[in-house]
């Protein structure tokens, strides 16, 4: 290959596969809170007024987000999921919030959220009905987009239940256009590929042009097996989905369930670390009014959030697996690298892993600076390619590190090499 052709390949590998949806939003992975996994379709406000889907829930969550450092940490969107509307549209055919649970209506709720310096997300469905059986938007895309814009909504999660799979692309694209035509910037969160995979391999170029993020796989549950299945699916499909991610459009592996009931602390650290490596939206689904201090500290960990929000906006890959370890690596701005080592063995105690075996460690020639972020913050100082640093990883836990190359000459050369080899490399077995 000529030098020029080689450069072209490198440049194309350095930028995402396609143009992102051009609405100026989601230049970094979205951060916020989304009700679904924790509060589901609890509409029983008579017996459970504190936890039912009502305007109070979002107002209280917004209050806590401001008071308890969530907003300052970067969490910005307060998002409503399914079960908010009335079962009937109004006389003009518009969606309306359930009058008993949202007596002020969505516009008032948006005003409240905005007065706290936060943004409001809402939920609808591309088909006849939402997944929980509320009115769908099929046949009403313009009307619903305009209603959301009139209410000053900032994000739409658009689900894919009760829709002819062959028409998913058309439906998601038409809603994207309808949102755009309102003139209000509304972040567009899709589930298009998740519903399309059973039919055919989705067209991620079209998806990236249409949506700001997109769910690919099953709903997250509050369990380690669920988090693991999402990681496994992502790694198995990474050559298809990772190149589609970049500023303006992201793969969405679903909500963070940190701070709930099902994950041990090590597993919570694994979810946080891997969601940062995957450049995933960080949408928590938990009860911020009652969350344990360790989970809160983890979710607000600035060093992990900095990886998630890195300005280069490249999603990471699983680069190696073997001996019940997985190595995931994400290239960061300034030629840095984030490395996560996941211990998949769910028995025994902490196991040592030689971080020098991580494929990306080659950036340590001649020298690099290493910082461990999880399980504890530790400056590990200057290292070389020959260094043997053993990190200790608990069962189902993750060690997370950043690696900064030192020599600038090498850095420049490496950058080309790294970008060129990253997506093509086959998994190494450790
Ligand atoms: C689907 C989605 C979930 C949630 C529910 C609501 O299952 O994937 O994220 O929105 O519907 O009914």
Automatic annotation (TrEMBL):
Annotated catalysed reactions: a globoside Gb3Cer + H2O = a beta-D-galactosyl-(1->4)-beta-D-glucosyl-(1<->1)-ceramide + D-galactose; Hydrolysis of terminal, non-reducing alpha-D-galactose residues in alpha-D-galactosides, including galactose oligosaccharides, galactomannans and galactolipids; a globoside Gb3Cer (d18:1(4E)) + H2O = a beta-D-Gal-(1->4)-beta-D-Glc-(1<->1)-Cer(d18:1(4E)) + D-galactose
Keyword flag Disulfide bond: yes
Protein name: Alpha-galactosidase
Broad class of where this protein is predominantly found: other
Annotated localization: Lysosome
UniProt keyword annotations, A-Z: Disulfide bond, Glycoprotein, Glycosidase, Hydrolase, Lipid metabolism, Lysosome, Signal
Superkingdom, taxonomy of origin: Eukaryota
Signal peptide: 1-20
PANTHER family hit by this protein: ALPHA-GALACTOSIDASE A, ALPHA-GALACTOSIDASE/ALPHA-N-ACETYLGALACTOSAMINIDASE
Alpha galactosidase A C-terminal domain mapped to chain residues: 313-397
GO molecular function: alpha-galactosidase activity
